[in-house]
Request: fold
Amino acid sequence: MAVVFDTAVLARHERADAMAAVTSETVAAADVRFAERDAAHGRMEAWTFGPVELLRAETAGVDVIRTAKHVRTTPAGLFSVTRQIGGTRIHEHFGVQEALARETAAPSTMTTRTFR
Reply:
């Protein structure tokens, strides 16, 4: 496991911009928004097993929005399984909203969706 990103080493006012850049470059092109920019924080870890790369992201205070335009112009080619550790994660996929409660899991494909 390698830590590929951690806001703990950044000044509070630098964290939101860094999270937006890393999310768009590492996960998939997206609009990244913050409820409170100074409260946003996160950490990403990665493992590589041959052709498979595993990414673990722990974030708070961030919305990741992939529009239909994002999907058309920059397909992610990514399949992910989400496990919600704490709080509630809300996402929308092809117009259908779903809440992922604490201690549950769901597959996702990084197509058109909103993460909160």
